[in-house]
Design a protein that fits this description.
The protein is α+β, with helices and mostly antiparallel strands. It has helices at residues 2-5, 11-20, 74-81, 103-112, 114-140, 143-158, 167-174, 178-190; strands spanning 22-26, 31-33, 41-55, 61-67, 89-102, 162-163, 194-197, 200-203. The protein is built from eight helices and eight strands, in the order H-H-E-E-E-E-H-E-H-H-H-E-H-H-E-E.
Length: 205
Amino acid sequence: MMTADLPKINPKFLQRLKEEGTVKHVPSDTVLLMEQSMIRVIPVLLSGTIRVSRTDAQGKELLIYYIRPGESCIMSVLGGLHHEKSKIRAVVEEEAELLLIPTEKANEWVKTYPEWTDYILSLYQKRFDELLNVVNSIAFQRLDDRLLALLKQKAELQKKNELNITHQQLADDLGSTREVVSRLLKQMENQGLVALARNKITLSN
């Protein structure tokens, strides 16, 4: 997996990853990182999905992006390299397998392995584009369009149209309230876009 997803990796660097990193299996709903916590390891996701979000002073949460297999969290990478506290919250959404890399090793590799630097830069570009999409959707899209786009994104990540998710979880992702999301979902059901059940939403084909 790592040879396919880390760009231009050579056998020497692959061996270093295996020697210095620790593989860990993590169940869903595990909080990997909290805001204002110190970043001591950088996670590279081998399987599963990680949800990255921000929380405001009132405790309202907003989804920023998802981490997919072969990727890492650029906010964790940059924070770890600069010895800064976390600015995000990272939670395992689907059971995950992680390669955990100590931040001191990640710092060394920036100077000695160009492919590691390439990997970080490619992550930065991808996350920057995703953050622009978040800003654009909040500024220019209606909430019902954002909700439908979120459901489609989750279906793509999980590779299925039947999602086990609550209205509150969707509201948290969108920075909205459960009542508003429930009303919009009911409208979507009336339009034939989704089918609703308890803690379950099925997207129409």
